[in-house]
Write a structure and sequence with these properties.
Layout: E1 13-18, E2 21-31, E3 34-38, E4 44-48, H1 66-86, H2 89-96, E5 102-103, H3 105-109, H4 118-130, E6 135-138, E7 141-144, H5 147-181, H6 203-218, H7 226-232, H8 242-249, H9 259-264, H10 277-283, H11 286-290, E8 301-304, E9 313-320, E10 323-331, H12 342-350, E11 354-356, E12 359-361, H13 366-372, E13 380-390, E14 396-407, E15 410-413, H14 414-421, H15 435-454, E16 458-460, E17 466-470, E18 477-481, H16 487-510, E19 517-519, E20 530-532, H17 535-542, E21 549-551, H18 575-590, H19 597-633, E22 638-646, E23 650-655, E24 660-665, E25 678-687, E26 692-700
Parallel strand pairs: 8-15, 16-20
Antiparallel strand pairs: 1-2, 2-3, 3-4, 5-7, 6-7, 9-10, 10-13, 11-12, 13-14, 17-18, 19-21, 22-23, 22-25, 23-24, 25-26
Helix pairs in contact: 1-4, 5-6, 5-8, 6-8, 14-16, 15-16
Length: 710
């Protein structure tokens, strides 16, 4: 121990920290609190005494030459490095932890040797400094962490090392992927196992990078990974859907990947309920749960799209004096529905059926929603009957509700019914057999719509084109089909459903039965009431409207022109309707509902969250395919539009055929523009993932020109 020096002077070997590395030197002079040091590189440096590590020595004669001092430095450094390699610092920690809270390097060296040399002490000091997970250097002592503290620091160190490795290997790779996404280069071949590539990070880094990209893709505002993402993506543009674009370039997700569906957690297909097969099996026993219901003898018909399989409403109508008696039959899947069960929770999380260009996702298992409880012709099905008595002006005079089994006479589609209402005599039209029923229903619907308009209803008639996808992957082609409008047939169905929902709301209010109400509480100018088709008028009115919401308390629905409205007509497609149907059915059977206000409020909170998630998918995905359609058409095509709004900077144009609203710079238009003015616009630079497109040119519309091909 004699070679350990407490106060280093000329000729003494010392060590100090430079950055995170231990440096060795020999003292060749001193000036107050500063030492002049000779380094192994033969350079000199000055250092404050308080920076010297607490294991100075040995001390040599100050008369030695510089060459001899440098040789001694090299010898001691080599010796200390060799001794350090022989030290298992975790074994040292095992012996030390629990004995005391802190100690100097000398104490740790004495665990290995009873009389350690200064080189052995220094070697232990080096090892202790490196083992930051188990020791902390607080000169001249090393704090000894407990097992719990050491475990925590090991985890933190591992996270830090992984983060550093990800940043080192991931940043350049993301830059490469962005170049691929922009089409500036191709993705280089991925190295095989055991191989390396200058373009690709190691496999473990690739795995973590992919996981980070997927997390950011699905949760772009994820705070947990925000700092890491900002660092690894440094230098890349803050582009919308950047993680998705990088994964597409990496070929980790398919072309036209539906990120909104994935982020919503909504499972496509019909396998999501398979773990609840037993519960579904019980619901399939339709006759067992509805056999006590009377059979309705009326010749009910349904009108839906030709592709509809989940048929949840039908009607029959007859004249009554100068008025009408309309019986609306609504599918009733709730007679044995297991609320609060695992199956019910799965359906609640879906919230609604989802209709996308590439697929239809049903809220219920398909064996229930499109078969067992669907109102298929000639099949006996349980139903809620809403009998409506209306006068010749469409005023609802009376109503009754009951449960029954129904057997529909026919399932008709909008197109066939529209042809009948337009007096098309085609004998092959299956709807022709119900011509009188349809004409009577249209008279009722027109009267009922007029009655709603008298009470402030705002009706906007606009057609939504049908998108068809042809091909797969990158070869997918979007075909936009504009079908002949079926305005009259749709009016029949919509007025029947609105009136049935209104009657159910009034019936429930009379019995203090809590339901989920659809409200739109806004005061509209009286001049807004009416049936509107002009895009500029509809755009103006839309600014005054607020979205309708689901509420426990009843309230006015301004756009529908009714004082109370409950969604109940689509229990196969919407969970709110399923709940309301269950409430009404239970009240008809037992005199009281299944849910009190408190339970209904808790349910609504969960339902709103589900509907928010699914609603984004229903909004964004069809728009994405429309943008793909525009991009596929190229930037030479003109589209017919109508100006709906304008200001000093931008002009808003409605494209009726495509059912799209676009904004363009005002300078693209001439000075004569006004709301309602027909124009032609040319579109380019479409970014479907960014939900962006740019209008390149705008011209007045000439009726002699086919705008879509100009």
């Amino acid at each position: 121990m004699a070679d350990l020096v407490r106060y280093p002077q000329c000729g003494c070997i010392v060590e100090y920290l430079e950055g995170n590395s231990v440096q060795i030197a020999v003292v060749v002079g001193e000036n107050g609190e500063r030492l002049r040091l000779l380094l192994p590189s033969r350079r000199e440096a000055t250092l404050s005494k308080n920076r010297i590590l607490p294991w100075s020595g040995p001390k040599y004669s100050a008369e030695l030459s510089r060459d001899e001092l440098v040789r001694l430095l090299d010898q001691h450094k080599t010796r200390r490095d060799e001794l350090q390699e022989s030290i298992n610092i975790l074994d040292v920690w095992e012996m030390a932890q629990g004995e005391l809270g802190q100690a100097q390097a000398q104490w740790f060296a004495e665990l290995a040797e009873s009389d350690p040399s200064v080189d052995m002490i220094a070697a232990h000091g080096h090892a202790l400094l490196l083992c930051k997970t188990h020791f902390r250097f607080q000169p001249p002592f090393f704090q000894i962490f407990t097992a719990a503290e050491a475990e925590k620091r090991l985890v933190e160190q591992q996270v830090r090392l992984e983060r550093e490795a990800l940043l080192a290997g991931g940043r350049n790779f993301l830059q490469l992927l962005w170049e691929v996404a922009l089409g500036r280069r191709k993705l280089p071949p991925e190295p095989k196992d055991g191989e390396s590539s200058p373009d690709w990070p190691p496999p473990e880094i690739r795995q973590r990078l992919e996981a980070l990209l997927r997390t950011r893709m699905l949760a772009p505002y994820d705070n947990e990974n925000e700092s890491l993402w900002q660092q690894v993506s440094r230098g890349l543009p803050d582009a919308p859907q950047l993680p998705l674009q990088l994964l597409l370039a990496w070929q980790k997700v398919p072309v036209h990947y539906n990120v909104w569906l994935h982020a919503s957690g909504y499972l496509a297909g019909d396998s999501w309920w398979q773990e609840e097969r037993e519960a579904v099996g019980q619901l399939l026993k339709v006759q067992e749960v509805s056999g006590d219901l009377p059979v309705c003898p009326l010749p009910l018909i349904s009108i839906d799209s030709a592709t509809t399989r989940d048929i949840d409403d039908a009607f029959a109508i007859e004249r009554s004096g100068q008025g009408f008696v309309v019986t609306v039959a609504l599918s009733c899947p709730v007679l044995a529905w297991p609320f609060d069960s695992a199956l019910d929770k799965l359906v609640l999380e879906r919230g609604t059926s989802l209709y996308l260009p590439e697929m239809t996702c049903h809220m219920l298992p398909e064996c229930l929603g499109t078969d067992a409880y669907s109102l298929l012709a000639e099949q006996l099905r349980p139903a809620l009957l809403v009998c409506l008595h209306l006068d010749q002006d469409g005023v609802l005079e009376d109503y009754t509700l009951s449960l029954a089994r129904v057997r529909l006479a026919a399932n008709l589609n909008y197109e066939d019914c529209e042809r009948v209402l337009a007096a098309d005599p085609n004998p092959d039209n299956p709807a022709l057999a119900y011509a009188e029923t349809l004409r009577c229903a249209l008279q009722m619907a027109e009267a009922r719509q007029s009655e709603r308009v008298r009470h402030g209803a705002v009706v906007m008639e606009r057609e939504e084109p049908v998108l068809h996808l042809q091909g797969e992957g990158a070869e997918t082609k979007v075909v936009l089909e504009v079908k002949e409008p079926t305005t009259q047939a749709q009016l029949v169905v919509s007025e029947c459903m609105i009136c049935a929902s209104y009657a159910c709301a009034k019936w429930a209010a009379e019995r203090d039965l809590p339901l989920l109400h659809r409200t739109q509480k806004v005061n509209l100018p009286q001049e807004y009431a009416g049936v509107w088709r002009e895009p500029e008028r509809m755009a103006r009115i839309m600014h005054s409207l607020v979205p309708s919401v689901l509420e426990i308390a009843p309230g006015r629905h301004a756009a529908l022109g009714v004082d109370n409205y409950v969604p109940v007509t689509s229990p196969l497609r919407r969970y709110a309707d399923l709940v309301n149907m269950a409430q009404v059915a239970a009240c008809l059977r037992t005199g009281q509902g299944l849910f009190d206000l408190e339970r209904l409020a808790r349910l609504l909170e969960r339902l709103e969250q589900a509907l928010d998630r699914v609603g984004q998918v229903q909004r964004m995905r069809p728009r994405y395919w429309k943008l793909v359609y525009f991009r596929q058409q190229g930037d030479k095509v003109f589209y017919r539009g109508v100006i709906t709004e304008e200001n000093d900077s931008f002009v808003t144009v409605q494209l009726p055929r495509e059912a799209m609203i676009v904004r363009a710079r005002r300078q693209l238009f001439d000075d004569r523009l006004y709301p309602g003015m027909p124009v032609r616009v040319r579109i380019g630079k479409v970014q479907p993932l960014w939900n962006e497109l740019q209008v390149l040119e705008a011209l007045p519309y000439d009726n002699s020109v086919d705008a879509a091909q100009a």
